[in-house]
Queue: 3 jobs
Job 1
Amino acid sequence: PSVLTSLALLCIGLVLFLQPPEMSLETTKQSTTTKATLDPTLVSLVVDCSDILNNNNNNTTEWIDTIYNFRMQIHNNDAVSDEIRQKKCYECDLVPILQHALESHKNALFLDIGANLGLYSFVALAQGHDVIAMEPVRASYTKLCGTVVKYNFWQDHLTLVNRAASNQIGNVSFQTWPGNWAGMKMVNGGGKMEGVDYAQTI
């Protein structure tokens, strides 16, 4: 072959070598083997997803195939879930920024405060990161648990805390907004409530 042909083949080879492989979450291996270490006072707050699902009486479950190569559970009537259902992603322009940041910091621990259905946590888990996710609303963390249990190896790398984050410890309730589980408002009383045990500062 000519010199130009050889150079062209060399360039193609370099592009293929440097291009990151497609990621399938069912086969991705985690970079660590243990969960993140929590303060001893918080260990009792960690949710066991298997127990949560065993005690869940709601059998209505909808699964969505996302563009991130994993399936996840969503709500039946919810603004965030509707977007995931239609676009197969959520905040689709922001997730690539997160993926790039995680790729640049391979040993980073990902904190997901107000995890909702867990999409950001799942993206981090897919890239081999340990995750601490906090979600106070049972309706949401039950869906999150359903996805985690499907991808069984994720359970070794996700620490799910069923509490809200606050600058003080106390009992709180959230007012629910029909059609938007992510649009919770902390209230002192009145309205339709989703009970939360207490807000915990970490």
Note: The two ends are 64 Å apart (CA to CA).
Job 2
Amino acid sequence: LVGYILAFVAKASFLFEIRDLWSQTMAANGFIKNPFLLHLNRELESFLYRYSSKIIVLSPAFTEEIDRQVPGSRAKVAYIPNGADLEFYEYPNLWRGSYFGKTSSQNISSQTISSNEAPVKPSIDKRSQETQSELSQSYFNVIYAGVFSDYTRLEVLLEAANRLQAQYPDIRLHLAGGGYQLNKLKNMSADMNLSNIKFWDA
């Protein structure tokens, strides 16, 4: 809302970036149960959708909901996903452990290497060595990176890990991030005696 006001005063374009459909998220998770507050929040969303110059979404699925909420909005929606430039990092087969130890052009380098120069191998600090040790085993590594909170429902991953560890011992789950649910999830993992899950504090 502040961004809209500043754009209006400055007579500038208002670009509205949507990182989550908060009205639906808050309603689905019970964070806001008051119907009036939910309606007020949805009306504010609709107002910002309607008067934005461009709507930037992180998921193409958001486009349908935004257009349903404010018909005609689809034309000004731009899909710009989060994530890394995989061609820049070039981590081929990291989960199988085939990256570490290579000295080829597959190694990460932010510089252009000429044909007369040796490839630059990235330095590996203590934290990276720990990561190498965890990910270079013959496991299928599944990684979650993000916030540990109520709305991410990471207890589901712990339940999945509990079911997987006996039948599929070669699958490892890695949870990287932080949040107020971190200690709760660690305690749950300990209580469930999960050996196939690893927490990485942010």
Note: The first helix runs from residue 2 to 10.
Job 3
Amino acid sequence: RTLRAAISWSVARLSAQAREQLLRLCVFMGGFTEADARAITGLERSTLEALARASLLQPAALGRHHMLEPIREFALEQLSVAGWAPDAHARHARHFAMECHGAFDALIGREQSVWYARIDAEQPNIQAAMRWSIHDAGDRAAQALRVGYGIWRYWWQRGYWRDNLAAMRQALDVNGPDAAAIVRREGDESAANAALLLHAGA
């Protein structure tokens, strides 16, 4: 109770903008880079520095930042109270789905080692993006499949294929046997390819 009071006091001292940014940052899992935070929440460096000075964010390796779990739990609660949770989670999932989509060719390119390291660091965020995409609504099936298809080489090389294949199948089940046709109509070729591959291996 004392810790919660201390967190509440620190958050209350923030400006309205910094407070909203803090709450939106709590959707990250396993930390985040400044670039990802800016892309998803519009976070400015001055706000990042203010949150760090208030000990609401902690520096981590490789230029990353993370939120201690008691602070994150408080922020998640307040994010829901403010009514921002659906939008914050959707932005997070959409961003990492796009990142995975962009990784498809990069994982066999000249900078593949950089991409493997990036995906290693972002595994908690990628898994969270897939879970949100699967469970939020049926029309997110394409987004979840885009994540899976975009980084299937990474999963194979790291030995994660079986676990993540199950998640992709779950995404496919959201829209049933017509999922491949649905995502192809949406113009999402990578998601359609993932759906077809899963059906072929069923």
Note: Strands lie at 32-33, 58-59, 64-66.
